[in-house]
Amino acid sequence: MDDVIIAAEFRFLLGDSRRLLDVDTGVEALLGFTRDDFLAGRATLEGRIHADDRELADSLFARGEDNHSGSLNLRLRRANGKIRCCRALFTKSPATPGPGTLLTLVVQDAKSLYRAAPEAAGMAGFRSLLELTDDLFYFRDCNHVYIGASPSSAREAVASGLQVDLAGLTDYDLLPENHADRGYRLAQQVLDGAPSATSTGEHITKDGKKGWAEFRAYPLHAPRGELCGVVIVVRKITGFMQSQQALQESEALFRAMFENSLSMMVLVEPDSGALIDANPAAAAFYGYSVAQMRTMHLSQINTLPPERMAAEMAVAKGKKQNYFVFTHRLASGELRTVEVRTSPIPVGGRTLMFGIVNDISDLKRSEQELDATLNSIADGFCSCDEKWRIVYFNHQAGAMLGLRSEDVLGKRLWEAFPGTLSPEP
Fold first, then answer.
1. For residue 64, what is the enclosing H or E element?
2. pLDDT digits (tens, 9 = 90+) for 365-392
């Protein structure tokens, strides 16, 4: 790189209005507009300033106090539309003759200021570390110009189709403008005094796929301790972000099913018995609002004694059983028989008990009525399922055969009555 610094000097009169007094011919190399373009008003410096730097520009062009000087980073858009990173040196002094403030502004191309070798910028101590890590390290000077990168970054550059030697370039030479803007904002936070800065963003890989990375920026100090730049550490987190996205989509799907299902569903904290959530169908059944149920305890709807309820919850949590029949109390005081199917699920770093509740009060009532009817007849009665297993055995059948119902229920006919029936072929 040659030693010519691309720069232009502007002189403004700041007062009730702002007026460009002069600009030198270096502006054409810097921004692609001629000196006459600026003096005739066909181009303005203010109009070339990047939108994110407008606040800095407002401060720069404010009349403020005289005899004031300083420097700042600015991004300017050239005539070809490309962004150029610049270093702006300014001096404000009283205008003579007359009122107002004279602003002398020297705008320098940041890339043409690049001179230092990586080690001179405080990188020597990183060499052994950089050889051992797969994280990507990028080093910039205080003007956002790259001064070096880790070996892993060079390999990434090759894989992404970028040039390997980044030194002397800026993000605006390498990346789409929106991605370059993100990196500039991150680094500028550290240059403005933050101890570190972090962001997460998308990037497009060489094969056109979308990936994710975490960007962290830290100050880079020279041997004497002065700030000489920024080190940006890039860690690929595509796998993590994909798993997080899948988890969010899964949780959203569960929430949609939970909220919209006509089945009654509840979420319970198994150790405390607190009702964490209930869907609208469950709230309507129990006679409470969803908000009320989220503040309730399981003991307010389950009629079991506390110790029995805790024991049943432990069984469910241990997956030893997932089907239960309980008597539940509604807000009206009415008691209903329900069957509950449970499953432990992880939610927000803890395990909750997910339960689907089904009201079987009418079924139980019908079963009781049928049982009373069959037990009232004078004949013995026995019924079997499609596998010839005995599922009902009334009192009269037991008395006639000298058997108890528990002796035969669940057995096949030829097992309950050996020698009287032949097994099915």
1. none
2. 887 887 788 888 888 888 888 888 888 8
